[in-house]
Amino acid sequence: MSNFDALPPGLPRLIADRYEIRSLIGRGGMADVYLATDHTLARQVAVKVLRHDTADNPMVTNRFRREAKSVAGLSHPNIVAVYDTGELPATEYSRSTSPYIVMEYVSGRTLRQVLKDEHVDEQYAVELIRGVCDALDHSHMKNVVHRDIKPANIMLTDQGHVKLMDFGIARAMDTSSTMTQTAAVVGTAQYFSPEQARGELVDYRSDIYSAGCLFYELVTHQPPFTGDSPVSVAYQHVGESPVPPSEVNNSLPEIYDAVVLKSLAKERDQRFQSAGAFATALEDAQNGIPYRDEAATMVAATVPFYEHQEETAAFRHPRTSEHPVFSSSADERDERPREHRSNRGLIWLLTIIALVAVGIASFLVIRSLQAEAEQRAPVAVPEVKNLSEVDATRLLNDATFKVDVEREFSADVDENKATRTDPNNGAQLSKDSTVKLFISEGTEDRVIPESLENQSEVAAREAIRAAGLEVGDVSRENHASIPTDWVIGTSPELGSKVKAGSTVDLILSTGMVKVPDINGMTRDEAEKALTAEDVGLLAKFVEVPDESEPGTLFLQDPVAGAEVAQGSFVTVSVSVDQPEPTPSQSPTAPETSQSSDETDESTPPTESKTPGTEKSMPPQSTNGNGNGNGRGNRGD
């Protein structure tokens, strides 16, 4: 059997005259990952190739190239290394080039598989998070934010090492502000940070929040927030506090709660300021050292807007009885309104400022609610039947949907055309929902190729697999002309229709022929029987003196029923008259010469030859009984 799997159309077996594709080992939303052999360095690598159905989408292509660029500058034992990158030329299956990435081949399981298959205690979870945080510290030092930390993007090798992979939505941070601005919500809903949920600026602390979600799931076997849709989960990330993990998992010590809740703070300034600090706090908790948040408390200083002018005025201008004319009550009445008018003006100014601020805030809140309502507004799934895979995917993407492509057989839709969607067209879904797109693989019926006859076994097996069928049992039969181990026919018969994936049995030639029985036939009949198209043997007739009637076929070698190689000779004995006995000779010497002369003239010849005929003793057969009694059918 071959060690190579069949490849999709348009994907060459050898890439860049160096990487030989062997088998498919993984499939993602936009690319397939293949196990390959690097013939230059004699090692196994993983080749990630953008699929033809997504290569025409510029957004997907740019994201794929960004992954290669992001990881190329990273070199860390906890990050899957990128060795090489390039682009496959356009083919008849794809109108544009298909970029590929050559990466380190990692044999192991993802954390998603680990969580599914086994229980993870807190000690093991801390070890795993330490590996993840070491990888994040390195990428953050290189100004790269991963933005999609989740169990499916973390590999655990067979030796137990942690490997961070899939930087497909990573972004390089602007070194002047150490942040990245995004125009859309990216990441996985159960693990992204509140700022990602709001579509705001993200930085390295967004990865720390996702790492906190990851540790939460490792120790509780469930994410901190769950919901019926990604939108509902996003709202929880923004506005709800997570349940402490020790309340979800009663066996988890409460000492971990403070560390986890610190990593899941809504405001990034309140989280750990590095991935390493998060891992160190978890290790301290594992050793019984509780976490204490030493953030400084800001104290606000209050300054009065104005003083009570009645008291200050009295202090500045005290009344006296010495000059009552200058301190009359009329003067006091004139002074107080001016003081109160000054206070009222300041109050009105502050009131106007407050009303303007409230108005602006109300406008912003209303706009925010409107934007959220537009985001939550459902969208109808478009009709895509009979469209090509590229056109159907583009139409669904334009309707804000994510597309998951699957294939199925269809009797009424041509191959490589869209058959349906799930949910069906017309269904109302929220934006960014995932829609399954089904592509036709053609009718399920397959035709057994008639060209298999008179083909070698190896060629027949390849043709059967190419037709979407499987090779079943192999049997052998005699045939007059088809060489040994070449195909005579199949079961079911050649040219018949069967279901895709059905088993086809091969019937091969033995290279042998069964000798027919020519007993009772004339010479012409025997020759036709032996040289017939379905027998294909050669006849050799030998005339042998015998008591049988002349022309009788009384012996054949090999005997009837024997199996001989194709094109073999069959020797047939033909009866002829026996020669007359020679008269006895006289002892008289003088007559000897004369008698001898007379004998020479009168005695008939003992042999006569005709073209293609010989006289000899009967052939001695050693094969079975047959007609081997030396008499044949003599008509006695």
Automatic annotation (TrEMBL):
Keywords: ATP-binding, Kinase, Membrane, Nucleotide-binding, Repeat, Serine/threonine-protein kinase, Transferase, Transmembrane, Transmembrane helix. Residues 625-636 have a biased composition (Gly residues). The gene is pknB. Residues 19-292 form the Protein kinase domain. Residues 604-622 have a biased composition (Polar residues). Residues 312-322, 330-340 have a biased composition (Basic and acidic residues). ATP binds at K48. GO terms for molecular function: kinase activity. Its EC number is 2.7.11.1. Gene3D superfamilies: 3.30.10.20, Phosphorylase Kinase, domain 1, Transferase(Phosphotransferase) domain 1. This is non-specific serine/threonine protein kinase.
